[in-house]
Specification:
9 helices, 8-stranded mixed sheet, alpha+beta, globular, Alpha-Beta Plaits
């Protein structure tokens, strides 16, 4: 029996990573508050289907603009070929705002359904959604029958999850567009707040931050 081999291909693309902030803390509190629900014969804590619902809301709204490559725990990672989105800054903001609005609606819906009064339930409304948008070359490779994205640009997009944006701006729900992506999208500096991240082994990563609460309210 032979298996077909699909060679890797090189693309230049926009990379979008959407991450739920605070979910690890929330799950930890669920485990602490509901130990009776954890086990091979116990109930599945509502936190898990809630997470699925929140991620579904994001996926439904970023696709088909972005190809969803991975669901990474509490994050969604996708890409879009350069030619599809170049110069389309405003439509991309609409996609992100739609995903953010869907996420907030699911949070509100879950709050109204799950009214148990515990520390985990009190923390749940503080969950937030942040987006990181970068641009660069990547290799698309089939591994174990699944499409994988590999490149320094992919690594940097994930590295940006650890950033100083909330500490420096107070924003928890936001979109950070690197300058590389902003230039290809033809976004002006007035699109958001100028921001820069520094890491020891790469050049400073400059870009623009948009607070999603304020942007959603303005639409």
């Amino acid at each position: 029996m032979t298996t077909s081999f699909e060679p890797p291909r090189l693309e230049t693309a926009f990379l979008l990573l959407a991450d739920i902030s605070g979910y690890s803390v929330f799950l930890g509190l669920v485990t602490a508050e509901h130990p009776e629900m954890i086990g091979t014969e116990g109930e599945i804590p509502p936190a898990y289907p809630i997470l699925s619902s929140l991620l579904d809301a994001v996926v439904e709204r970023i696709a088909p603009t972005f190809v969803v490559s991975e669901i990474e725990g509490d994050a969604v990672f996708g890409y879009a070929p350069d030619a599809r989105l170049a110069g389309m800054g405003a439509p991309i903001l609409d996609v992100v705002l739609s995903a953010y609005g869907g996420f907030r609606a699911r949070v509100d819906e879950a709050r109204s359904v799950h009214t148990h009064d515990c520390e985990a339930c009190r923390v749940f409304p503080t969950l937030e959604l942040k987006f990181l948008l970068h641009h660069g070359p990547l290799v698309i490779q089939q591994i174990a029958g699944r499409e994988r994205l590999l490149s320094p640009a992919v690594n940097l997009t994930h590295r940006l999850l650890k950033n100083s944006i909330t500490d420096r701006t107070g924003l928890r729900g936001y979109l950070f567009v690197t300058s590389t992506a902003a230039e290809r999208l033809a976004l002006s500096p007035e699109f958001g707040l100028a921001h820069e991240e520094r890491y020891d082994d790469v050049e400073p990563v400059k870009g623009i931050v948009v607070g999603l609460d304020a942007a959603a309210a303005a639409t």
